[in-house]
Amino acid sequence: MAGKGSMSHRIDDVMKLCCELSTNHQIQTTVKGSGKGAAAAGGLAFAGGLVGGPLGIAVGGAVGGLLGCWLTSGQFKPLPQIIMELSPQQQQKLYGDLMAILGDIQWTDLVQLTALVMGNAALKQQLTGALLGYITKELQAEVHYVD
Fold first, then answer.
1. Would you call 29 helix, strand, or coil by DSSP?
2. pLDDT (tens digit, 0 to 9) for every residue of the chain, 147 residues total?
3. Which residues contact 124 (CB under 8 A, 6 or more apart)?
4. What is the DSSP code (8-state) at residue 144?
5. What are phi and psi of 140, to 5 degrees?
6. Per-residue CA distances from 2 to 5, 6, 8, 88, 104 (Å)
7. C-beta separation of 23 from 80 below 8 A
8. Integer distance in angstroms from the first to the last C-alpha of the chain?
9. Contact 73, 101 (CB under 8 A)
10. Which uninterrupted H or E stretch holds 123?
11. Residue in 66, 80, 110 with CA at minimum distance from that of residue 18
12. Between the CA atoms of 14, 19, 22 and 27, what dihedral angle is there, to the nearest 10 degrees?
């Protein structure tokens, strides 16, 4: 008989597993504000080109790039941070998506769940795919792999 407490505990385990998966892949996400940075860089490169020709494009692009970085600073977040900042409803939805893949796998704690998933390359890949799909679809975030 599973009570409400065990359900939230399982959701917590799955969220922490997501953090583990995304840490392994060095994934960063960008929340929608990044368009401002690209627009700033492109706009200033264009303006620089109008004023100073090819050199103006380079200067405008550099200044625009710096401005773009400044405008979007704080927009790039490590995926584990985003996962832990999800609302309970968002966590519930992500949990549902991932449980569809985990199926009837049973686990007693996070350590066991992580070992089961990390030991199964296909399962790990499916879960990572579902996680990234959720992030891009539900949160409209862009996903970047960090080398």
1. strand
2. 343 447 888 999 999 998 888 776 656 565 554 444 445 455 444 554 555 665 555 544 454 555 555 554 556 677 788 888 899 999 999 999 999 999 988 999 999 999 999 999 999 999 999 998 898 888 777 776 665
3. 21, 117, 118
4. E
5. 50, 45
6. 8, 6, 11, 19, 14
7. yes
8. 45
9. no
10. helix 121-138
11. 80
12. 140
Q: Which structure tokens are listed for 14? A: 């799955």
- Helix then strand count (H, E) for the chain reads 6, 3
| The residue to which tokens 């900042």 are assigned | 85
Counting every residue written for the chain, the total comes to 147
Do the beta carbons of residue 64 and residue 45 sit within 8 Å?
yes
C-alpha 112/C-alpha 11 separation (Å) is 15
Nearest CA to 23 out of 64, 69, 81, 68 is that of 81
**Tokens found for residue 111:** 């350590």
Query: What are the φ and ψ backbone dihedral angles of 27, each rounded to 5 degrees?
Result: -100, 135
Question: Which residues make beta-bridge pairs with 27?
Answer: 145
Other Cβ atoms less than 10 A from the Cβ of 124: the count is 18
Contact 97, 134 (CB under 8 A): yes
